[in-house]
Design brief:
about 260 residues, alpha/beta, Rossmann fold, 5-stranded mixed sheet, two-stranded parallel sheet, about 50% helix, about 10% strand
Length: about 260
């Protein structure tokens, strides 16, 4: 939708498992045409974006790579990168296809074409995870594309990416799930803080199950670090000075983050 709204592509072809989705996507302005056959959808493409659930990214790449022309850029939007990059990159290179992992840090709790939004990437960080084998030209083109749809491209090593998103994305989902798990009726008093902190708990659980399984090592490390910090806060509750210092450290860090992102 963002590509078409900005006139950035001559044609956008959508691939879906359900034929009825094609009409819905076209009516919402997401695609020029659609198909239920991946091989047909990627024919002649200059850019192919794999936007499937995580478990299907590698099998789908294996399926469409033989149909891609030399010079085609292949990317994905999955929130786990290490295993995906290590699996697809060796398959793409010999065919002349440039694979660069991607992960736009944007989304909502909805699913399917009904939840699509052309402004979704506005102001979002768009992570790219090239390796030493990646085409610098492909990385540059994807960076330019991210900027063109309103996002801010950033480059991370695939494994560093997985450790980073375990903290800033995957752990927050588990915290949201835990907060809902202990609410026990207290949610009737919920205000903006609780509602904001638990928003992501309303996301599709099947998708999150795949994400957490694929990134379980870094997530486990993040959980342990969070438990340690929570214990530190708990232990300092009775010590006003120490507790205040921990809170002030957190406030200052959040202020710096807001300034860095330009959102206060």
């Amino acid at each position: 939708m963002a590509l078409r709204a900005r006139g950035l592509a001559r044609e956008v072809v959508g691939v879906t498992r359900v034929a009825e989705t094609i009409d819905a996507a076209a009516s919402r302005g997401a695609i020029d045409r659609g198909t239920v056959t991946p091989e047909e959808g990627v024919a002649g493409a200059e850019l192919v974006v794999l936007a499937t659930p995580p478990d299907l990214v590698i099998p789908m790449a294996e399926r469409v790579l033989p149909r891609l022309e030399s010079g085609t850029i292949l990317t994905d939007v999955t929130s786990v990168k290490g295993e995906i990059v290590r699996s697809i990159e060796p398959l793409a290179g010999p065919r002349g296809t440039a694979f660069v992992g991607g992960h736009p840090m944007a989304g909502n709790a909805g699913r399917g074409i009904a939840a699509a939004d052309a402004a979704l990437f506005e102001g979002a960080v768009y992570l790219l995870t090239p390796t030493a084998r990646s085409s610098s030209g492909a990385v540059a083109r994807l960076s330019d594309l991210a900027r063109a749809i309103g996002a801010r491209p950033a480059v991370l090593d695939p494994d560093k990416h997985d450790r980073a998103v375990a903290i800033v994305s995957h752990l927050p989902y588990l915290v949201a799930a835990a907060l809902m798990g202990i609410s026990d009726g207290a949610e009737q008093a919920a205000g903006p803080a609780f509602l904001g902190a638990t928003r992501v708990a309303g996301s599709p659980t099947a998708l999150w199950g795949q994400i957490c399984r694929l990134n379980q090592g870094p997530i486990a490390e993040a959980v342990r670090a969070f438990q340690s910090e929570l214990a530190r806060l708990e232990a300092s509750l009775a010590d006003g000075e120490r507790f205040g210092a921990l809170l002030e450290r957190a406030r200052a860090a959040r202020t710096r983050l807001g300034a860095l992102r330009g959102d206060g």
